[in-house]
Write a structure and sequence with these properties.
47% strand, mainly beta
Length: 665
């Protein structure tokens, strides 16, 4: 403390005051909610990622970390992790690690350049999400044993004269669970809800002579809170299953027939190329059986029974083996440019079961591919033809009614070779049973070209999708867009038409399309053409290529040429329109009342300096940081400024500076 003398004096006087400024405020940490991670790796460890934000007013460039793991939250197994486990740049960071199953705590110790320290403890768990791997034996033959006197063994209210009990463990070929112990096997008929407590299954005379498909489940001792069990409930042990079959035999005469003699009707079901079809239901004389994985079936029928009908049926997954390539083949047949060379292909192409081929079959099949329609009103997904039937006119299988069931006048002995050809409706090239997707050779990529662009919030953009169609007969794909960033508002069809699109999943950001050329004469004049154009409203700034992609599910991305070659579809972005200079964008939102994001684009990695000035030119806030190439952003909070009004913000990168205005409410 000093003062000036009031008396008169001569000479030179100097006053010195020392001011020390200290930063006693530790960094602030904002955590994203974390709870549970899944261990699915082969070493039974889980990959974890814990994001967090840091707010440091004084020395953000001098932030340092120390990470300590308290394994199993017992304060015993403490492990210090290296700084490299924390990734990111100020203010966004993410702790990434691989940890074993159990409940743990990570302690992140954050220090600034002034020695202030913040300690954040984050509890979380790693659950065993790895299901056992089980393999079944390839079927089992069992023999019914007599029950004397007949007793209701299986609880269905009917006395049973012959039974056999089969156990789940009898069907297990191999099983493994690297992360836990197998504690139970269960068994159920295919179609029934699995029950961990059901260890065995009782078969009776109702099953005699039939092939019964069974499902075997292996259950571990994990308590996985995330697992969805077969009955639809959430939480509990992990499980996996395999399907096999039981051939139920009545080797002792009279066990099931009360003195009557029983015969069998058996056969095989294959597709036109000889591949076995499993799961087909066969109805014979009030009995139902199904074909096994080898296509074989067997049904027991009383001897001397008359007027027997063997009726196969199967109605599952209409899109099995179906794609736009099948539409191409049907269209070529209708136009006469390339005819279908098999009566079974023609039956497959008759999607609406009208007894002929027309554009209506093409329309219906496209609706099925695009999920506009679930099934065919007058048709099932499979049709069946007597294997030994000879079509009088193979080019017109509807010339006479072909047999879709077999008839036998009387059961005088075992009937074998009651065989059928199964035709998958819509699958004109019989691809449902091939390992490769199509009959032709898979060649190069079919590129759907899109000009990349840098987007700002609030703008409307039209995005053309173009491709070279000179040799292409048809294509299909599912386009996915980020619904948080883009909102679709319009479409311009161009080469395609409204019928070529499916919109049922638009709310999920998925657009399905299936197109084929409808006029062979015009094909050679099509080169690189705009397929269609979409108009989006931009709700989140960024690069277009970050918000668009082809989705691998639903309609698989493919294209087909006149040589039956298949091309894998890809979304190819033209980067030539990319920015090559540093660009400062308008803050989001603007005006703002709490905080705002200042976006900018860097053509390469660089250090960025941000300054915010009041309307009077005084510096109100500044920050800096190192950022990677691309779209980046910095945040300014209301607390960083002084009252509402207009502010000027600048960002400087390697001597280059840009300026914009923003408004605080």
């Amino acid at each position: 403390k000093g003062y000036w003398r009031k008396s008169n004096s001569t000479g030179f006087w100097q006053y010195t005051q020392w001011i020390n400024v200290y930063d006693n405020k530790p960094p602030k940490v904002i955590l994203s909610p974390v709870d549970l991670f899944c261990a699915t790796r082969g070493d039974c460890q889980g990959d974890i990622g814990i994001p967090f934000l840091i707010s440091e007013d004084c020395t953000p460039q001098e932030i340092d970390f120390e990470v300590v793991i308290d394994l199993y939250n017992d304060s015993i197994d403490l492990i210090t992790r290296e700084r490299a486990k924390v990734k990111g740049v100020y203010p966004k960071f993410r702790y990434e690690d691989t940890l074993p199953i159990g409940d743990h705590v990570v302690e992140i110790r954050i220090s600034d350049g002034c020695g202030n320290v913040t300690i954040q403890r984050i509890p979380f768990g790693v659950a065993d999400c790895k299901a056992p791997a089980i393999a079944c034996i390839n079927g089992l033959a069992v023999e019914l044993s007599p029950v004397v006197p007949a007793t209701d063994v299986n609880g269905d209210g009917t006395p049973d004269s012959g039974v056999v009990e089969i156990w789940a463990s009898d069907f297990v070929k191999s099983v493994s669970d690297d992360c836990g112990n197998i504690v139970a096997y269960s068994i159920n008929r295919v179609g029934e809800t699995p029950d961990i407590n059901r260890k065995s299954l009782i078969l009776t005379c109702n099953d005699a002579g039939n092939t019964v498909q069974v499902e075997i489940h292996a259950w571990d001792d994990a308590n996985n809170p995330l697992v969805i069990k077969p009955d639809g409930s959430v939480g509990g042990p992990n499980s996996s299953s395999c399907v096999t079959y039981v051939l139920v035999q009545e080797n002792l005469p009279g066990i099931c027939s009360d003195g009557a003699t029983i015969g069998t009707i058996s056969g095989i079901i294959t597709n036109p190329e000889g591949k076995p079809v499993s799961g087909a239901n066969i109805h014979v004389a009030d009995h139902n059986t199904s074909s096994n994985e080898n296509g074989l079936y067997s049904a027991r029928v009383p001897m001397f029974a008359s007027d027997l009908q063997v009726i196969p049926s199967l109605n599952r997954n209409f899109l099995e083996g179906v794609s736009t390539y099948d539409i191409v083949l049907i269209s070529q047949h209708i136009l006469g440019t390339k005819t279908l060379d098999s009566p079974y292909k023609l039956i497959a192409a008759d999607v609406n079961k009208s007894g002929n081929l027309s554009i209506l079959d093409v329309i219906l099949l496209r609706k099925l591919i695009l999920s506009v329609q679930v099934g065919a009103e007058n048709n099932q997904s499979w049709r069946f033809v007597d294997r030994y039937y000879s079509f009088p006119r193979p080019s017109n299988p509807w010339h006479e009614t072909f047999p879709e069931q077999l008839s036998f006048k009387q059961m005088l002995g075992p009937i074998e070779n009651a065989d059928f050809i199964a035709v998958k409706v819509g699958d004109v090239d019989f691809s449902a049973f091939r390992n490769s997707a199509r009959n032709g050779e898979t060649k190069d990529l079919f590129s759907i070209e899109v000009k990349d662009m840098f987007l700002t919030q609030g703008q409307h953009i039209q995005v053309p999708f173009a491709a070279n169609l000179q040799e292409i007969l048809g294509y299909q794909f599912t386009l996915a867009f980020d619904t948080e960033a883009l909102e679709m508002v319009d479409i311009e069809y161009n080469i395609s038409e409204a019928q070529h699109f499916g919109w049922d999943l638009l709310d999920q950001g998925l657009i399905m399309t299936s197109w084929n050329i409808s006029n062979e004469v015009n094909k050679n004049i099509i080169n690189t053409s705009t397929l269609f154009s979409l108009t989006f409203k931009v709700n989140k700034a960024g690069r277009l290529s970050d918000y668009l992609q082809l989705h691998p599910r639903y309609v698989v991305g493919e294209a087909y040429d006149r040589n039956d070659s298949v091309y894998k579809a890809e979304l190819k972005f033209d980067k030539t329109v990319d920015r090559t200079e540093f660009t400062l964008l308008q803050n989001i939102p603007n005006p703002f009342d709490n905080e705002t994001i200042i976006p900018f684009y860097l053509p390469k990695s660089a250090k960025v300096n941000l300054q915010v000035f009041g309307s009077d030119g005084r510096l109100m806030h500044q920050a800096s940081g190192n950022f990677e190439q691309g779209y980046q952003q910095m945040t300014v909070k209301q607390s960083d400024l002084k009252g509402n009004g207009v502010y000027i913000y600048t960002i400087e990168v390697e001597g280059e500076k840009e300026i914009r205005k923003m408004i605080l409410l």
